[in-house]
Specification:
This protein has about 625 residues and is of the alpha+beta class. Helices cover about 35% and strands about 20% of the residues.
Amino acid sequence: MAASRKKTLKFKTEVSQLLQLMIHSLYSNKEIFLRELISNASDACDKLRFQALSKKSLLKDDTELRIEVAFDAEAKTITVRDNGIGMTEEDLKNNIGTIAKSGTAEFLSSLSGDKAKDANLIGQFGVGFYSSFIIAEKVEIFTRHAGAKKGAGIRWESAGEESFSINEIDYDRRGTEVVLHLREGEEEFLNDWRLRSIVNKYSDHITLPIKMLEQASAEEGEEAPEPTWETINSATALWTKPKRNVKKQQYIDFYKHVSGDFEEPLSWTHNHVEGKQQYISLLYIPTKAPFDLNEPVQRQGIKLYIQRVFVMEDTEKLMPRYLRFVRGLVDSSDLPLNVSREILQDNRLIQSIRSASIKKVLGLLENMAKKDVDKFETFWKTFGPTLKEGPVEDFANREQILKLLRFSSSHDDVQDEKITLDDYIGRMQPGQEKIFYITADSFSAAKNSPHLEIFRKKGIEVLLMSDRVDEWLMGQVNEYDGKQFQSVAKGELDLDDIATKKGKKEKKVKLDDDLLKSIKTSLEDKVEEVKVSERLTTSPSCIVLNEHDMALYMQQLMQQAGQDIPVSKPVLEINPGHDILKKMADEKDQENLSEWSQLLLDQAILCEGGRLEDPAGAVARMNRLMMS
Ligand code: ADP
Ligand code: MG
């Protein structure tokens, strides 16, 4: 190999950081390096096979795509070789020398330093090629892109610390060869049986043949025969097998392969669909959220195969945003092999696979909710907020998704998000027609809101919602099962038709007209109106927003994010039965009355998670009133 000038380049800081971390965290799980390298080799062959559909010349006469694993006990190296697409110098720099993964910095900052926990996180992040450095002190890559001239290869080398080097070499093979120079003490991997069993454990489902040299033992005195490559995996696409022929463990291993996740999946659904169109889908729900769940674009998605050929990976075309955590694949027998992303955009077949797959996933969740409550709880804790985007995004399945949502309830003391809308409806009071809820920026703010007082008193259940998405969700969804949603903090309340627990109406304490007038005058520019409340039993005052206004805590979040939102003045409701109001009725000093009025408004705003315009002024006022 005639080597050219060598270029040394530095890894981005995150890479060195990640490498160090991985070496420490994955120490007890070193063998996964082989799974990762084989998975990359398999991806590279998939890419070549797909590109060769439209450009036959890429394959040349080397048409049997395969992966080879070899080792050299003397040189202490392990080699994983493929005849796939290969890499250009740019590819090497972009894909191997940097981390193109969005959210890397956030990921690194989320690490705790606790090795066990971090190892888990790294699993979700997907370690990929870098896992080589767990056992290798030096890694070399020899590669030639399928489109490059014969001989025009590139060598990449790194000790995984700070830098890597790249130089041009004379290299005839197509594809990529990764050579690991093992660290001192990692000799256990220089063993035929060991390597075979790792392949068996993690990579049996790879659809390409994985080959190793046959271990021919020579008789003494005889010359050893030329060793031959033998295929050591079953090399059939797992998803094409009938369900009954696939073992649970095989499904789990396959999940780890398609998702890059270390954890076992929570559940899956495998379907062979025949009829108007033929396709297979194998869809998994992960146990843990991927690190980029809330990034604008996700790195992983659903893989699309056409007649067993991997075509592309894409989430949005096969799953809606609210199911972006679903992993797996769809293999269609009807789509043309030369599809492009653009064609897929409005393809009828894709649309129908997509809607059927959504149904499958929702069905899987429904079933889980019925048959395995604990599992569903795990799902809900991880993906509940994501699923809540569904009723807005997917109108066609709105009811079915709403049925899956879980809520905390004013009937419970703790936040356990176990109530379904059907549970709620089943417990509605006679005469109750609406589903009452409250949104707040924390569970305790919701639970202790003054707005719940009358509902508690009457024994009417209120759903307590405190996820970020809740306010938005409830702003978009009007009803479930023919029952309207009604925020207890917004608009008029009419509970008169609901039979109350005690069955009798309380007699109302009247508010002195002059006092009401005086409060109104004091707060003239700040509130739309001051009213005697029907909602309060123990608090002196509360804010009531317009039916269509955003909750105060949300208004503030939006404003902080620089959004201009129209804000209408709230209504202040007061409770004439409260001692403060009684005290105010006896107060003759106008100045003091105005201070008390302001205090009523301030505390109502605070209870809503709102922010006071002049907190210091409010505190001074409160102190004055306490001392007077
Ligand atoms: P991932 O496989 O999740 O993308 P990896 O770290 O395993 O992450 O690999 C990074 C990238 O390097 C791959 O996406 C691919 O572009 C490139 N790569 C790695 N191995 C190979 C290979 N054997 N052939 C071609 N490209 C490869
Ligand atoms: Mg990979």
